[in-house]
Amino acid sequence: MNTSAERDVLVAEGITKAFDGKTIIENISIHVQKGELVCLLGQSGAGKTTLFNVLSGLYRPEQGRVLLGGEDITGKPGHISYMLQKDLLLPYMSVLDNTAMPLIIRGMKKKEAREKASALFHQFGLDGCQKQYPAQLSGGMRQRAALLRTYLSSQGVALLDEPFSALDTLTKSAMHQWYLRVMEEIQLTTVFITHDIDEAILLSDRIYIMGGKPGVISDEIAIEVQKPRDTDFTLSEAFLNYKRLLVEKL
Amino acid sequence: MEEKQFPTAKRAAAEKKRRAVTDKLSPIIALVLLVAVWAAVCGFGSIPSYMLPSPGAVIRAFVGDFPLLMEHAAVTLTEAFAGLGIGIALAFVTASLMDRFRGLYQALYPLLVVSQTIPTVAIAPLLISWMGFDMAPKITLVVLTTFFPITVGLLDGYKSVDADAISLFRSMGAGNGIIFRRIKLPSAMSHFFSGLKISASYAIVGAVIAEWLGGFEGLGVYMTRVRKAYSFDKMFAVILLIIIISLLLMGLVTLLKKAAMPWERKGVQNV
């Protein structure tokens, strides 16, 4: 236990957040290890997004604290990157400038920020899109560009709020494969929200199940399957067993 | 399947092309017809030419008085541009402050709307008695008329920003300054140019009205002179010039918009 606690990059302890006297999430504690891909799975309205807003520092919780690498970052934005279902690429900036934005915000020179972002375009499947505007890209590419921006704004940890749910099934499946491959390479510690059980099992190392009103963590399941996982995994016996288990718990 | 689709697609393209041509042709035909009716009415002699000059007479007056018209136009344009420039600057400051401070927005917005209901013809003589017969009251009137559409345009633009985009930038550690410069301002550009287009036409009309009501030079002054002399052909000529100048200004705004917002054009391709 001690050794795993030492490897934890992100820790949330006893988070409670209320709006107008109504408690949305109560006493939530999660921990995420370096390089881990952890999923928050639950029905809508369970307070997953609220928890994300607390983790990213946009909301200050009534109780509890958020630690990043041991440092208290409760209510302090700018430490953990955040990506929504909407790609939120700014239509008036080139794709390159959009992705370089977090570096520019952090005070990096524009030229240097562009070079750094541009160097990652190949890895994110965005070759040659630097000078294009977001409206010229397909949905999947826009999402990859948003992921690249998230990666560049992360100082090790990224929060993804239903990152693939706006994509059509085929694009989504391709994105999952690409995502697993890229994660292997860049080793980004990630917490992501989904209500798609298949997606949770395919991508996660560990799943937190959230539910109830106010929202609490009702269970935690580790997916002990070696990565990289391919599409065959989604048809395997192990996958179905996990799925059965999760359906029961939800 | 494709063979069957092809002629349809071709027909659709031809139809589109034909429509583009008729769309452009229709207003021209309407205008030509209108001028023809005008010329005919004058030609039959049912209306005396000093009451309604013929199109030919208007053109002759326009050409004959061209140097004088240009002299006056220069004055009017100077007032319009000065007023528009100050109006834009003032609108930027006001709208940005109103967006930043909610209390200020609540306090000023009703006043802004009320200020627009004050008739220009009523305020212009007051301005002239306060500021004299020089350019100052004219520029002030132009500022008053152009300021509002731009301010409202900018305010709407600032409000149109996706709140999630701002949250995202905050999560990246951006402060108010960066959010304003990188999100609010560029997002408001298209609203700004819509307001500017309206203001550009207001600017000319505002300057002319102020000159009409008191002054020594400018197209408005020229108008009062030719009206008193019952030279209606010259009156129509100056109206024609004001129309041309207003259209040119609006065209200039469209060009500026295209130059300032390149993503608008590129965005449409291969979506």
Describe this structure in words.
The complex is a heterodimer of chains A (250) and B (271). By secondary structure, chain A is of the alpha/beta class. Chain A has two domains: 2-80 and 156-249, P-loop containing nucleotide triphosphate hydrolases (Rossmann fold); 86-153, no CATH class. Chain A has helices spanning 2-7, 48-55, 95-105, 110-118, 139-153, 169-186, 197-203, 237-249, and strands at residues 8-19, 22-33, 37-41, 63-68, 71-72, 81-83, 157-161, 189-194, 206-211, 216-222. Chain A has a six-stranded mixed β-sheet, with helices on both faces. With 271 residues, chain B is mostly helical. Helix content of chain B is 85%, strand content 0%. Chain B has helices at 2-44, 55-64, 66-100, 102-117, 120-131, 135-159, 163-171, 176-212, 219-228, 232-260, 262-266. The interface between A and B is medium-sized, with 28 and 25 residues.
Give the structure's gist in a few sentences.
Chain A contains 8 helices and 10 strands.
- List the chains of the largest interface with their residue counts: A-B, 28 and 25 residues
Mean pLDDT of chain B: 87
Kindly state the percentage of residues in helix of chain B.
over 70%
Number of strands of chain B: 0
The biggest beta sheet of chain B is recorded as: none
User: How many domains comprise the coordinates of chain A?
Assistant: 2
How much helicity do the residues of chain A have? 25-40%
CATH architecture of the largest domain in chain B: Orthogonal Bundle
What is the terminal separation of chain A in angstroms? 27 Å
Uncertain regions of chain A: pLDDT < 50 for 5+ in a row? none
For CATH, the homologous superfamily of the largest domain in chain B is named as MetI-like
**Nearest-angstrom radius of gyration of chain B?**
24 Å
- Calculate the terminal CA-CA distance of chain B, rounded to whole Å: 24 Å
- As a percent range, the share of strand residues of chain A is 25-35%
- Largest sheet features of chain A: 6 strands, mixed
